[in-house]
């Protein structure tokens, strides 16, 4: 794709979502919300493509803080996975349900794990830690933890409904705060223990259970011009997610882990990688 095509497509996609939800749900908030996120993503990817090095970090904070502080803390909307179950069980198509459908269930068909590279408020902090590229081999078996956390979140919210616990709104708010503090603590601890900023993403994060299947079919993905590639392996050495981008097959090693950070594309000495 041409240099700024991704940014334009992202902006158009989010504007389409913003206008559709605004008109469908008769709520101006959705126009503002998705326009803001789409504009941040489009500007960030455009600046990044223009080689402004910290553009991705700026987008991570612009979107991540908006969602964590404004939506989560000030508006009291639990955007974590338990918030998704909560609104789903209430039968309400808003807040976390819309967020999950757009960013984590259907959106990845277009932009893969772009959420993880540009918008996640957990990763915005983890990416500041010193281990940007993993210093040790991946512990594949540890990946089972994400399914346990996923099941626990479902059980937790399911139990609140089954036991008819009162004050669910308040419980969801406090679980959002507690859950985030726990995620940051575990994420930072794991990053230092395994010398890998993204260890939490690889082994613990329950959201990946939603993100990975659709990412497999993502329209946006890093491709390799095998006529140019000399197999030097530099690209793989800078990838924070251990992806084998020298293989163009969809089932390439850790292919559903790509967060579209573009580090490999920037680093390839032969300019063999592209979107
Ligand atoms: S894997 Fe989870 S914690 Fe990591 S960036 Fe994606 S959503 Fe955030
Ligand atoms: S850095 Fe470029 S040339 Fe080297 S293996 Fe990767 S894609 Fe091929
Ligand atoms: S380095 Fe390349 S393959 Fe790895 S996550 Fe970033 S864009 Fe994806």
Automatic annotation (TrEMBL):
Q: Name one GO molecular function term.
A: 4 iron, 4 sulfur cluster binding
**Which key words tag this protein in UniProt?**
4Fe-4S, Electron transport, Iron, Iron-sulfur, Membrane, Metal-binding, Transmembrane, Transmembrane helix, Transport
Protein name listed in UniProt: 4Fe-4S dicluster domain-containing protein
- Indicate the segments annotated as coiled coil, or none if absent: none
Pfam families recorded: Fer4_10, Fer4_5
One Gene Ontology CC term in the entry:
plasma membrane
Record-annotated 4Fe-4S ferredoxin-type domain positions: 220-249, 250-275
List the transmembrane segments. 28-50, 57-73, 85-103, 144-165, 171-194
Q: Organism's domain of life?
A: Bacteria
């Amino acid at each position: 794709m041409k240099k700024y095509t991704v940014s334009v497509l992202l902006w158009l996609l989010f504007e389409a979502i913003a206008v559709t939800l605004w008109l469908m749900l008769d709520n101006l908030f959705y126009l503002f919300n998705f326009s803001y996120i789409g504009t941040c993503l489009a500007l960030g990817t455009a600046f990044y493509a223009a080689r402004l090095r910290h553009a991705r970090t700026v987008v991570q904070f612009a979107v991540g803080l908006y969602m964590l502080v404004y939506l989560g803390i000030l508006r009291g909307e639990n955007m974590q996975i338990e918030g998704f179950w909560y609104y789903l069980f209430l039968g309400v198509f808003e807040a976390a349900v819309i967020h999950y459908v757009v960013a984590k269930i259907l959106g990845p068909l277009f932009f893969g794990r772009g959420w993880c590279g540009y918008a996640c408020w957990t990763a915005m902090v983890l990416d500041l830690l010193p281990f940007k590229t993993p210093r040790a081999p991946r512990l594949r078996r540890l990946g089972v933890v994400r399914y346990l956390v996923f099941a626990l979140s479902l059980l937790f919210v399911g139990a609140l409904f089954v036991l008819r616990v009162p004050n669910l709104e308040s419980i969801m708010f406090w679980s959002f705060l507690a859950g985030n503090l726990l995620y940051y603590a575990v994420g930072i601890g794991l990053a230092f223990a395994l010398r890998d900023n993204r260890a939490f993403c690889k082994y613990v994060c329950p959201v990946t259970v939603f993100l990975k299947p659709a990412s497999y079919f993502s329209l946006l993905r890093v491709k390799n011009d095998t006529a140019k590639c000399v197999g030097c392996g530099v690209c793989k050495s800078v990838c924070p997610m251990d992806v084998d981008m020298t293989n163009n097959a969809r089932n390439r090693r850790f292919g559903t882990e790509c967060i579209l950070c573009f580090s490999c594309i920037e680093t390839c000495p032969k300019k063999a990688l592209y979107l």
